Amino acid sequence: MIALLLALGSSLAYGCADFLGGLGARKAHVLRTVMIAAPASLVVELLLWPILGASFSAETLGWGAASGVASAAAFTLLYRTLAIGPMNVLSPVTALVSAMLPVGVGLVQGERLGAAGLVGLPLALAAVVLVSAGHGSGSVRPSRTALLLALGAGAAIALQLVFLHQAPSDSGVAPLIIGRAVSSAVTLGAAGLMFCRLGSERPAYAMSATAGVLDSVANLLFLLAARSGDLAVVAVITALYPAGTVLLARSVLAERIHRGQIVGLTAAAAAVGLLALA
Question: Is 141 a residue whose pLDDT tops 50?
Answer without folding.
Answer: yes
